[in-house]
Amino acid sequence: MERHFSKPSLSRLWWVGLLVLFLLSRFRPTVRRTLLVAAAGFLGMVLETILILYYQVKHGVLYQDIGLLLMSFMAGLAAGAAIVNRLMVRPAGGGQSSRWCGFGLLSGFCLLCWHLQAEIAMSLSIGLVHTSLLLLAAGALVAGIFADAGLREVKDHENVISTLYAADLVGGCLGSLLGSLILIPLAGMDVTAQAMLLFAALSLVLA
CATH class for domain 30-206? Predict the structure, then answer.
């Protein structure tokens, strides 16, 4: 007798499988580090897509201010990498002093996702400055996690940087494809933001 799985059942199975994968990666530091960076790249790209689309929908424009919005995300990348690098290489504590850095950055993703889905659910109109600040924060979190993964408990940084960079790009590519072609068109921006909140919460296991 055939069994048919409902969409909610498949969704729960997907999240449970993802959690198991993240938990198992705890036993392999290299895999854990790679998945962490990929998850950050995925989250960053989906949130960037949601923020830009939501801004365009609320203001009835397609390309207006797009350069400033993209610049905000890139500026966040630069700022996040610089800040975390400075924290990690402090002579007073070195990498061990920022042991909770990854957890804090992923918690920041959770807060950002929660804030974004709340604004979309209430259909609030966010301006250019507000959107730019959220994009700045998203970029800073992505780069901060990348820097943390590449520096914390790593003796030979040259051996891990290429793998982490590839993971970041793969995560970003998946985020761009799934976010713009599947998640947002089929589920909507609010549900997608909620899904990213859950994904960020599960990713705390990787910190």
Answer: mainly alpha
